[in-house]
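Section handout 9: paired folding examples.
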Amino acid sequence: MITSDSISKLAPALLIAQKSIKFAKKDAKNPFFKSTYADLESVINAVKQSLNDADIVFIQTFSPSRDGFLNLTTRLIHSSGE
């Protein structure tokens, strides 16, 4: 994965976003373990506005993995390009 040489603008923006991010709601159920968890939609709902307010966008891409599963990669990009 190619990353920025510097995160001098991204790091403070992440701090701003992190200060306002609330926990994702655990509203999905796993009947096998009889538990609840935060599904991907709940996680996105918990972080998207705070990240966007700090000029950070996230992009998620899938790639194949072994045994027919998929990997999910999340990339954070600041408006500065970092």
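Moving on to protein 2 of 2.
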Amino acid sequence: MILYHATTQKKAKIYRQFGQIKSPVRGFTTIQAAMAWAMKVGRTVILEFDAPNAHKLPDHHNKFGEAWWNDGDVKEWCCVFSANGDA
């Protein structure tokens, strides 16, 4: 399952520095859902990652997609949106 994770530029740099996003990693099923959440909570970076151990969250869903969390560290991802430039 592909998920989209909303984060800050500062956290995205830390993820790159350590080569992983520590579990649990939350994400949305669509980039639009992640962007809606990001706007709501003030985050400016959207990362895409594969979530082989995904579990549906009981909340955080919005009209654009569902919220899930991945049980396990994420070691590969790509930046699909950054309002601040390169994240």
